[in-house]
């Protein structure tokens, strides 16, 4: 882990965080509602996904760990979507241009919207990226992962949430 941190820091990715699952202020509380317009100009309301398990990913184009995670989230959306998974991406970039380019390049198959500091604050503050929340079918945040995280841990918790009705 220290080697990975050093490589990312030397490569200029200092704003990305390095951590694992944490107990943030939002854990085991209802996920804050939001309504945004996604990159495809469609309305994206979190409340419309009640009954689904939501993987809510805060990321940015300049964050290398974010770009490592995203192809896995694309695959999980394909693999688990029929079981009730909905991945939602929130880009914390300032400019939607690079976000659209990366969205197309990675063939993202889930909605992505532009976020801002206010939305980040409603989720306890987004101070490093990536930050991923797992929200259960009732709309309660059940896990929060900050920074470089073992994707196996996220997937295990995700599968656990998908198995409950």
Largest sheet: 5 strands, mixed
| Count of domains | 1
Assign the CATH architecture.
Answer: 3-Layer(aba) Sandwich
Fourth-level CATH superfamily: Glutaredoxin
Quickly give the structural class.
alpha/beta
CATH topology: Glutaredoxin
Q: State mean pLDDT (0 to 100 scale).
A: 87
Q: In words, what does this structure look like?
A:
Helices cover 33% and strands 21% of the residues. With 165 residues, the chain is α/β, with parallel strands linked by helices. It contains five helices and seven strands; from the N terminus they run αβββαβαβαββα. It has a five-stranded mixed beta sheet, with helices on one face. It has one domain (33-162): Glutaredoxin (3-Layer(aba) Sandwich), CATH 3.40.30.
């Amino acid at each position: 882990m220290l080697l990975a941190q050093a490589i990312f820091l030397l490569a200029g990715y200092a704003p990305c965080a390095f951590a694992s699952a944490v107990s943030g202020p939002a854990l085991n509380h209802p996920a804050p509602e939001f309504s945004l317009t996604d990159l495809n100009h469609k309305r994206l309301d979190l409340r419309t996904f009640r009954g689904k398990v939501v993987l809510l990913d805060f990321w940015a184009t300049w964050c290398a760990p974010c770009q490592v995670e995203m192809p896995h989230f694309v695959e999980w959306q394909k693999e688990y979507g029929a079981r009730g998974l909905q991945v939602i991406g929130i880009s914390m970039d300032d400019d939607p241009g690079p976000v659209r380019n990366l969205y197309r390049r990675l063939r993202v198959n889930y909605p992505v919207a532009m976020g801002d500091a206010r939305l980040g604050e409603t989720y306890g503050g987004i101070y490093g990226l990536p930050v991923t929340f797992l929200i259960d079918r009732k709309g309660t945040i059940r896990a929060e992962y900050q920074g470089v995280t073992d994707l196996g841990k996220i997937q295990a918790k995700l599968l656990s949430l998908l198995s409950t009705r």
